[in-house]
Amino acid sequence: MSLPSLSALPVATGLLLSLATASWAMQHRNYVAARHDRFTGFPATPAWNATAWYPSHQFSGVAWARDDVPYCRQFALVSPLHLVCATHYQPLPGTVMRFLNSDGVTVERSVTHLTPIPNTSNQNTDLTLVTLSGPLLAADKVTFFPYLNLGVESAYIGTPLTVFGWQTKAGTGVLAMFDDYVVNDLPNTRLLRFDYLIASGSQDDVYLEIGDSGSPSFAMVGGTPALLGTHITIDANATTRFNYDTFVPHYIAKLNAAMAADGYQMTPVYPLELAPSYSAWAMGLSNEDHAADPDGDGLPNLLEYACGGDPAVASRAMTSGGALLLPVLTVDAGVATLSLPVRGDAAARGLTYAVEFSATLATGSWSLTPPPGSTLADAAFDPAVPGYLRRTLTFAANDPVHFCRVRVILTE
Predict the structure, then answer these.
(1) In the chain, which residues have pLDDT < 70?
(2) Residue 199: which CATH number?
(3) Closest to 379 (Cα-Cα) out of 154, 135, 42, 147
């Protein structure tokens, strides 16, 4: 899917400014300031709006760019030191971010550094990590947001959203589906979509317009806001306005890697059980080494661990469901498709499934860069296989790349 972004052109160093007019921004079906504004007296003397339809005071971690006139775009705090934003519309270093804390006092930090978040093909996505000039401490009374962690994408469908946009306004949406955002024919950002029905709906329903880039969408989980997305693009037909966010939970491992140097990581709203280690999984085998093959089926222990096999049973099928453990490559109508099972909690287990490409099979010819136009997606097995997803990579079979392989890497 190739769509325009939601930004207008930035025109000043150190500030988020726009050539667009104030009418280009998030629209409510029936806007009422007392119901939809997060603050009263904004921006000069912001105070929490007690009559908002949502618990506005629970969003102290949604910052706004102080000098971003007229939009005052919003950014979600994901650790005491980090925000997330849209890569296509970044707050430049020096931009002042302002928060309203739980006591109704404004707190400020400035932007010092931007880190684009890559996808599995090391292409930049439309998600960027923002580092602030200093952490928000307990005394600042500003709360950062966890993210909503569910097992598979399909579990998120139907989730009610609290959607933020320009001038610290908020409305509603419902997560409808997932897609990929294509830039220069590269599938580089995973998206969630929420829809606005033009004919009818709730007075709180909203659709996005230019000016909303990077503002966040949340789910409410037990009264706690949990981050799901940052606004990226829009589309429409005669009956529906389609609104797209970068799907933040898709990039947790990459965000954690970027935050690690500062001593932080993303926080799940649901506590994660510690994934069994390889050592625990292999305990009791006649040979527990990664490269060993105690059942003699030609599959090393590490591959069985990563792809759902039983190291004590000579079989090349998954223990549950019967799908093949090994990657499968097919070609149809000029399109090559590589599929393989992957663990849904691979990041927590320290597992990486690296797809490598070569035109010659020669030593040193293998590369992690996929052919142009490749697509990569994870989906649930049908029927479902608990704990596993099917990863599918497609690319043109007539590309100079003639060979591909999967390398499983374990870092515990």
Answers:
(1) 1-25, 184, 186, 272-275, 412
(2) 2.40.10.10
(3) 154
Q: Name the domain count of the chain.
A: 2
pLDDT tens digits, residue range 4-39?
Answer: 556 543 322 222 222 222 335 689 999 999 999 999
The residue type at 377: A
Among 249, 272, 295, identify where a domain stops: 272
224 closest CA partner among 146, 315, 122: 146
Q: Tell me, what's the pLDDT at 2? A: 54
Nearest Cα to 56, choosing from 39, 77, 75?
39
The 3-state secondary structure of the chain reads CCCCECCCCCCCCCCCCCCCCCCCCCEECCCCHHHHECEECCCCCCEECCCCCCCHHHHCCEEEECCCCCCCCEEEEEECCEEEEEHHHCCCCCCEEEEECCCCCEEEEEEEEEEEEECCCCCEEEEEEEEECCCCCHHHCCCCCCECCCCCHHHHCCCEEEEEEHHHEEEEEEEEEEEEEEECCEEEEEEEEEEEECCCCCCCEEECCCCCCCCEEEEEECCEEEEEEEEEEEEECCCEEEEEEEEHHHHHHHHHHHHHHHCCCCCECCCCCCCCCHHHHHCCCCCCCCCCCCCCCCCCHHHHHHHCCCCCCCCCECCCCCCECCCEEEEECCEEEEEEEEECCHHHHCEEEEEEEECCCCCCCCECCCCCCCEEEEEECCCCCCCEEEEEEEEECCCCCCEEEEEEEECC
240 and 313 co-located in one domain? no
- Whether residues 93 and 139 share a domain: the answer is yes
| Domain range enclosing 85 | 1-272
Q: Are 44 and 231 in contact (CB under 8 A)?
A: no
Distance spanning both ends of the chain, measured CA to CA: 37
Last residue of a domain, one of 244, 272, 300: 272
> Same domain for 220 and 315?
no
